[in-house]
Design goal:
The complex is a heterodimer of chains A (about 375) and B (about 350). Chain A is of the alpha+beta class and about 375 residues long. In chain A, about 50% of the residues lie in helices and about 15% in strands. Chain A contains 15 helices and 8 strands. The two termini of chain A are about 40 Å apart. The longest helix of chain B has about 40 residues. The chains are: A alpha+beta (about 375), B mainly alpha (about 350). At the A-B interface, helix 4, helix 5, helix 7 and helix 14 of A face helix 10 and helix 13 of B.
Chain lengths: ~375, ~350
C-alpha cells in the first residue's frame, strides 16, 4: 500500500470522538487513508489524583482510586489496600482475602467484557457489545448487592472490607457463573470467529514481544505478545498462590503472535480463567471471620515507603506510597498500565489505515481515567 | 396506474373544464404525492422495524410504551413519529465555513435520486407510475445520483471527517454499481427486455419460473446483486462512508435536523428501491409463488411489498450482526470477487440459454 503519495494532512481524532474511549486526542498525520504518525495528547481527564492524595487521610484515598479506572474500581481498591497493608504490616484474615479475590475476578470479567465489546463496537459490530453489556450488568448487580454502589465501590478498606458478603451472594454468583459460562463460547463464536472480524484484526497491529517489553506494556496486551507474565502467578499477592489457574498467552491462532486478534482472544480466555478462579474462591471461602477484624483504628503508617503492584484487568498496577509518619501520604504515585499501552500505539499502529488505527486503539483497552488520573 | 391512465380518467371527468396541459400536470402530480406519502409512511414503518428487529437481535426491548403515559405509544409505535418530529423541530445549523449553496443542495439531491427511482417500480400488475421501456436501466441510472450528493455533502461541509466520508462513498458506490449492473444484465438477457413489468411477466407460473431458479447461475447473480445493493445503500457491513466509530458520522457529520433527516430518509428509500429491483428482477415481482393461489391483482401488491420487505429485513439482520469491512477489503471484494463472478455469470447464462433454451 501507499504507492501513490499525496499531500499529508493533520487530523485530530478526538477529544470528542466515538472511538477514543473517553477524552483522548490523537493527532495523526494522514496521507489519504494511511496514517503515518500518531501523537496522543493526554490530560483532558486529569483530576489531580496524586496531588489530592497528599491532602487527604489514607482511608480517603480509596474513593479516589475508584475514580481512576472507573471500569475496574474493585481492582484499583485492591491494589491500594495491598500496598497499605504491606506498608503497615497488617495481616488480614482469609475470609477477607477470598472475598477480595472474588470481587477482583468478577471485576476482571466485567472489565474484559466491556473491553472486548467495545473493541467489537470499534469495528462496527454493535450486537456483541450489547450482549456483553447485558452480562456485565449482572456482575454490576452483584456488586450493588454487596456494597450498594454500581460503578465506584469504595469496598476494600485497609485491613478489611466495608461490608461482609450479603445473604445469598454466593448462590447468586454461582447462578450467574452457570448462566455466563456458555455465553463466553457464544461471544467467541459471534465475534471472535466472524470472518470479517478476523479479517479486520488478524495480522493487524502486531506488537512483538521486544516492543512490548521496551515500552513497559503489561497485562493482556503483553500476554498477547506471547510473554507469560501475570502478577497473580509471578508475584502472588493475597491468596492467588492458593488458587489454580492458567495464564493464557497469545498464540497467533488467526495470524501472528501479538496481533489485535490475539489481544482480543487473550481477554476472552482470561474471562474463562476468572470464572474458574471465582468458583475456586467460593469453594474455599471460610464461613467465619470478621471483615473488620484487622482494621486499624487510625491509619498512621510508620515512616517509610512502599511500592506494591497488583494485576488489574489492564496490567501491572503499581502504587508507590511515601509515608512521613503522619496520617496523610507524603507522596502517592500510581503506575498506570493503560498509560504504557497507549504509549506503544504509535509504534504498532503507525503506517496502518485509519480504520486499523482505531481498531488497534480499541484492542489495547485503554481507560482514560487511569491514564490522566 | 400509469400517468396516462390518470390523465385519461381526469379528461373523462373534467372534460372541457380546464385545459389538457393542466390535466397532464395534475396527472403527474398525483402519483408524485402518492409516492411521497408512500415513502414517508414506509420510512416510519421500516425505522420502527429496524428498532424492533435490532432490539430482538440485541436482547433488549426497544421502544416500549410504559405505564400510564405510554411515552412512545402502544409498543412504542409512535417512536419513529417522535424521531421525525424531533428532527423537524431541530435548529437548522449550517457551519460558517461550509460551502453554503452546495451544503443545502446535497440533501435535496440525494432525496431526489431516491424519490425518482420509485417512478419505475412496479407495485402490482397495473400499479406503476411510469411503465418505462427502459425501466431497469432508468432505476440504475437515477440511483447513481446518490453518489454525487454524498460527495457534495462531504466536500461542502468543509470538515475532514465529511471529506473522508464523501471520498469513501465515491469509491464505494461507483465500484459496487458495476457488479450490481452486471448481475442485472443477466436478468435482462433472460427476460429480453428492460421494461420492469415485462421482466415480471416473464416470471409468471409459480415459484420455479422465477428468474432466481431459472438456471444454476442465477442464485449467484442474485447474491452478488444483493450484496452490491447493500454496499450501494451504505449499510453495515459496508457503511464506511458514515462509519460511526471511525469517521464520527462521515459525510453527515455537519448535518443536523431536517437536512440530516433527508439523508436518513433517502437511505431507507434506497433500501426499498434496491430490494424492489431484486424482488422484481429475481423473485417474481408481484407473482404469487404458487399459481392460482392469491394470484389476483390486489394480492400482487401484497406479494411485491412482502418480498421487498423480506429483503429489507435481511438487510437489517445483516446490519446488526456483522462488523464493518475495511476500505481496501471492501474494494478487494468488489473488484476481485464480485466483478469476475458477475462476468462469469454473463458468459454462463449466455451459454446456458443457447444450449438449453433455444
Amino acid at each position: 500500500m501507499g504507492v501513490v503519495h499525496g499531500q499529508e494532512m493533520v487530523l485530530n481524532i478526538g477529544p470528542q470522538h466515538p472511538a477514543t474511549h473517553g477524552v483522548l486526542r490523537l493527532q495523526v498525520k494522514t496521507d489519504g487513508e494511511v496514517i503515518s504518525e500518531i501523537t496522543p495528547y493526554l490530560g483532558y481527564l486529569h483530576r489531580c489524583f496524586e496531588k489530592h492524595c497528599e491532602n487527604v487521610s489514607y482511608e480517603q484515598v480509596i474513593p479516589f482510586t475508584d475514580r481512576c479506572d472507573y471500569l475496574a474500581s474493585m481492582t484499583m481498591n485492591f491494589g491500594y489496600v495491598v500496598a497499605m497493608e504491606q506498608l503497615m504490616d497488617i495481616k488480614v484474615n482469609d475470609r477477607v482475602q477470598y472475598i477480595r479475590v472474588i470481587m477482583a475476578e468478577l471485576q476482571r470479567i466485567a472489565s474484559h467484557l466491556l473491553a472486548t465489546g467495545v473493541f467489537g463496537l470499534d469495528l462496527g459490530a454493535f450486537t456483541p457489545f450489547l450482549h456483553m453489556l447485558r452480562d456485565r450488568e449482572r456482575i454490576i448487580d452483584l456488586f450493588e448487592m454487596t456494597c450498594g454502589a454500581r460503578l465506584l465501590y469504595n469496598y476494600m478498606w485497609v485491613g478489611g472490607l466495608s461490608h461482609d458478603l450479603p445473604k445469598g451472594f454466593v448462590e447468586e454468583t454461582l447462578r450467574f457463573l452457570d448462566y455466563f459460562e456458555p455465553k463466553v463460547d457464544e461471544f467467541e463464536n459471534l465475534l471472535g470467529h466472524n470472518k470479517i472480524f478476523v479479517e479486520r484484526t488478524a495480522d493487524i497491529g502486531i506488537m512483538p514481544a521486544e516492543v512490548a517489553i521496551n515500552y513497559g506494556v503489561t497485562g493482556p496486551n503483553l500476554r498477547a505478545s506471547g510473554i507469560k507474565w501475570d502478577l497473580r502467578k509471578d508475584d502472588p499477592y493475597s491468596v492467588y498462590d492458593r488458587l489454580d489457574f492458567e495464564v493464557p498467552i497469545g498464540l497467533g491462532v488467526k495470524g501472528t503472535v501479538g496481533d489485535s486478534w490475539d489481544r482480543f482472544y487473550v481477554r476472552l480466555q482470561e474471562i474463562r480463567q476468572s470464572i474458574n478462579i471465582v468458583r475456586q474462591a467460593i469453594d474455599k471461602l471460610p464461613k467465619d471471620g470478621d471483615v473488620h477484624q484487622s482494621m486499624p483504628k487510625k491509619i498512621r503508617p510508620p515512616k517509610g515507603s512502599i511500592y506494591s503492584r497488583t494485576e488489574s484487568p489492564r496490567g501491572d498496577l503499581g502504587y508507590y506510597i511515601e509515608s512521613d509518619g503522619s496520617d496523610t501520604p507524603y507522596r502517592l504515585k500510581m503506575r498506570s498500565p493503560a498509560f504504557t499501552a497507549l504509549g506503544v500505539l504509535n509504534e504498532i499502529a503507525g503506517g496502518w489505515l485509519m480504520s486499523d488505527v482505531l481498531a488497534i486503539l480499541g484492542s489495547l483497552d485503554i481507560v482514560l481515567g487511569e491514564i490522566d488520573r | 396506474m400509469t400517468v396516462d391512465y390518470i390523465f385519461d380518467f381526469l379528461t373523462s371527468l373534467l372534460d372541457g373544464l380546464i385545459g389538457s396541459d393542466y390535466l397532464l400536470l395534475l396527472a403527474m402530480l398525483i402519483p408524485c404525492l402518492a409516492i411521497f406519502g408512500f415513502i414517508t409512511v414506509y420510512a416510519l414503518v421500516v425505522i420502527y422495524a429496524e428498532l424492533k428487529v435490532s432490539s430482538f437481535i440485541q436482547d433488549k426491548v426497544g421502544p416500549m410504551g410504559q405505564g400510564v403515559g405510554l411515552h412512545a405509544g402502544k409498543w412504542g409505535l409512535l417512536q419513529p413519529v417522535a424521531d421525525a418530529l424531533k428532527l423537524l423541530l431541530k435548529e437548522d445549523i449550517i457551519p460558517s465555513s461550509a460551502d453554503k449553496p452546495l451544503f443545502i443542495l446535497a440533501p435535496f439531491m440525494i432525496f431526489i435520486g431516491a424519490f425518482i427511482s420509485f417512478v419505475a417500480i412496479p407495485f402490482g400488475d397495473s400499479i406503476i407510475v411510469a411503465d418505462l421501456n427502459i425501466g431497469l436501466f432508468y432505476i440504475l441510472g437515477v440511483g447513481s445520483i446518490a453518489v454525487l450528493s454524498l460527495i457534495l455533502a462531504g466536500w461542502a461541509s468543509n470538515n475532514k471527517w465529511s471529506l473522508y466520508g464523501g471520498m469513501r462513498s465515491a469509491a464505494q458506490i461507483v465500484s459496487y454499481e458495476i457488479p450490481a449492473g452486471l448481475s442485472l444484465i443477466v436478468v435482462i438477457m433472460l427476460a429480453g427486455t428492460l421494461n420492469m413489468q415485462d421482466i415480471i411477466t416473464y416470471q409468471a407460473g409459480g415459484l420455479f419460473s422465477w428468474i432466481i431458479f431459472d438456471n444454476p447461475f442465477m442464485p449467484v447473480a442474485f447474491v452478488v446483486y444483493f450484496i452490491s445493493a447493500i454496499a450501494e445503500t451504505n449499510r453495515t457491513p459496508f457503511d464506511l462512508p458514515e462509519s460511526e466509530s471511525e469517521l464520527v458520522a462521515g459525510f453527515a457529520t455537519e448535518y443536523s435536523g431536517m437536512r440530516y433527516a433527508f439523508f436518513f430518509l433517502s437511505e431507507y428509500a434506497n433500501m426499498f428501491v434496491v430490494s424492489a429491483v431484486a424482488a422484481a428482477g429475481f423473485l417474481g415481482g408481484w407473482h404469487s409463488p404458487i399459481v392460482g393461489i392469491m394470484d389476483s391483482s390486489a394480492w400482487g401488491v401484497f406479494w411485491m411489498i412482502s418480498k421487498t420487505g423480506f429483503l429489507i429485513f435481511v438487510m437489517i439482520w445483516l446490519r446488526w450482526t456483522l462488523p464493518r469491512l475495511r476500505v481496501d477489503q471492501l474494494m478487494n471484494v468488489c473488484w476481485k470477487v464480485f466483478l469476475p463472478l458477475a462476468l462469469i455469470n454473463i458468459f454462463g447464462v449466455a451459454i446456458w440459454t443457447v444450449v438449453f433454451n433455444s
